[in-house]
Design goal:
globular, 8 helices, mainly alpha, two-stranded antiparallel sheet
Length: about 190
């Protein structure tokens, strides 16, 4: 996400975990996935041991990208809007939130703003601002975004991942870690 008026402070463990989750879900190839997974594994050693980049990428694509219909599309609109369609109202709501924070997706107009990686990045941006300013307004916005948005759709997304047969346990572990991270952020 491109920010217009804030800089990130040194990252605590929770923020490092969030960055690694973001990087995992936005990875564009097996090598990027494996790199993000290794960083996650350092922060959460309970994750299964890494597998090859090709195996991880195959499972990732089957679950989240395609070429066939993905099992668990990583977009809020699929779970929050009617008809399981991407680019629904949730996409515009995410974009509006980003704009209210002075943020713009680097892929605005070409990639849905409600992708899990972009939403995790928005969380990280809000955490950084809270740490920097102590703003009660941003704290409230962050808590509402977690409780009323992310924790409304991510568990449904996770349920689809968990129900998929034969998927890499590494990805199942990352999805569990994502749900746990979001719940921990709420507290």
């Amino acid at each position: 996400m491109t920010e217009t008026d804030t800089t990130l402070t040194p990252l605590d463990t929770s923020s490092r975990l969030g960055c690694s989750l973001r990087d995992f879900f936005i990875a564009s190839n097996g090598d990027d996935l494996l790199t993000a997974f290794h960083r996650l594994n350092e922060l959460a050693p309970e994750l299964p041991r890494p597998i090859s980049a090709d195996s991880l990428e195959f499972s990732f694509n089957r679950l989240f990208i395609g070429p066939q219909a993905p099992i668990a599309p990583p977009f809020a609109s699929v779970y929050q809007d009617e008809d399981d369609l991407v680019m629904g109202r949730a996409t515009q709501d995410a974009r509006d939130l980003y704009h209210s924070l002075g943020l713009v997706s680097p892929w605005q107009g070409t990639f849905p703003d409600d992708h899990i990686a972009l939403e995790i990045d928005a969380c990280l941006q809000m955490k950084a601002r809270i740490a920097e300013t102590g703003s009660n307004e941003i704290t409230t916005l962050y808590q509402n975004f977690l409780q009323e948005h992310l924790l409304q759709w991510v568990p449904q997304f996770a349920a689809r991942v968990y129900s998929a047969e034969g998927e890499a346990p590494q990805i199942l572990g990352v999805v569990r870690l994502t749900v746990d991270w979001l719940q921990n952020e709420l507290t």
